[in-house]
């Protein structure tokens, strides 16, 4: 079956540091890939997505590139802020028609 | 434009009891999906409702059931509660029976604690 693996957290960084959160997936077909963010006490918000190989999703300074050869979708940001502290979830959806398979989440804490 | 509304926000139940959670989709949306998020884990898909029918189901036992009303709102029912049912239950709405890739809007969830 389909699955998503993320680097274990928590990840603690200083403000303006570079962020990478690794995500790899297993899928039987050709999935679309997503990053969602969950702030404390809130639901999930879509951060970015990519629907085919070599696509780059980007939003709010975050980026991720769909790498089919390595089955990866790593999240990066060049300079994190305290307000980026949240839990980040990598997810896939097979052919847009299936519901999400989420990874376990990675908690990010950014210190001033 | 109201987003997805879930009620109640928190709930405490005893093992063996039954619980009903409610969800009102975002204005203009007609499809509701439910997810269970255990503490420290990612959400897991329970089922999706469209046109008042269950369209897709994840790997959850029959103790988990649902309903969708003509106004598109939905209920999640869990019978014979177990301690392991303690989780944040998330509702997500979308349009036209389409699933995750076309764009979900998530609610803030109902935190269920089973004691």
TL;DR?
Chain A has 112 residues and is mainly β. Chain A contains no helices and twelve strands. In chain A, strands 2, 5, 6, 10, 11 and 12 form a six-stranded mixed sheet that branches. In chain A, strands 3-9-8-7 form a four-stranded antiparallel sheet, with no helix packed on it.
Describe this protein's structure.
- The complex is a heterodimer of chains A (112) and B (115).
- Chain A is mostly beta strands and 112 residues long.
- Chain A has strands at 3-6, 11-14, 19-21, 23-26, 31-38, 44-50, 56-59, 62-65, 75-77, 86-94, 101-102, 106-111.
- Chain A is globular, with a radius of gyration of 13 Å.
- Chain B is mainly β and 115 residues long.
- Helices cover 0% and strands 50% of the residues of chain B.
- Chain B contains no helices and eleven strands.
- In chain B, a hairpin with a 5-residue loop joins strand 7 and strand 8 (74-78).
Unreliable parts of chain A: none
Greatest contact between two chains: A-B, 25 and 25 residues
Annotation, overall tally of beta strands of chain B? 11
User: What structural category characterises the helix and strand content of chain B?
Assistant: mainly beta
Defining key terms:
heterodimer; A: 112 residues; six-stranded mixed β-sheet; 12 strands; B: 115 residues; mainly beta; seven-stranded mixed β-sheet; four-stranded antiparallel β-sheet; 11 strands
């Amino acid at each position: 079956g389909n699955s998503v693996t993320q680097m274990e957290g928590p990840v603690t960084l200083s403000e303006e540091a570079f962020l990478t959160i690794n995500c790899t997936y297993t899928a039987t077909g050709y999935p679309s890939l997503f990053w969602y963010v969950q702030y404390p006490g809130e639901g999930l918000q879509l951060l970015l997505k990519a629907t085919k190989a070599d696509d780059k999703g980007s939003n709010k300074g975050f980026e991720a590139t769909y790498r089919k050869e390595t089955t990866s979708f790593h999240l990066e940001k060049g300079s994190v802020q305290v307000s980026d502290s949240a839990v980040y979830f990598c997810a896939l959806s097979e052919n847009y028609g299936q519901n999400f398979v989420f990874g376990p989440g990675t908690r990010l804490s950014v210190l001033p | 434009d109201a987003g997805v509304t879930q009620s109640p926000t928190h709930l405490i139940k005893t093992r063996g009891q039954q619980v009903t959670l409610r969800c009102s989709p975002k204005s203009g949306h007609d499809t509701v999906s439910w997810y269970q998020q255990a503490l420290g884990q990612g959400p897991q898909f329970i089922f999706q409702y469209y046109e008042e029918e269950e369209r897709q189901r994840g790997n959850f036992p029959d103790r988990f059931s649902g309903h969708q009303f003509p106004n598109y709102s939905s209920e999640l029912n869990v019978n014979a509660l177990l301690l392991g049912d303690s989780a944040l239950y998330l509702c997500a709405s979308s349009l036209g029976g389409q699933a995750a890739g076309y764009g979900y809007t998530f609610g803030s969830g109902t935190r269920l604690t089973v004691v």
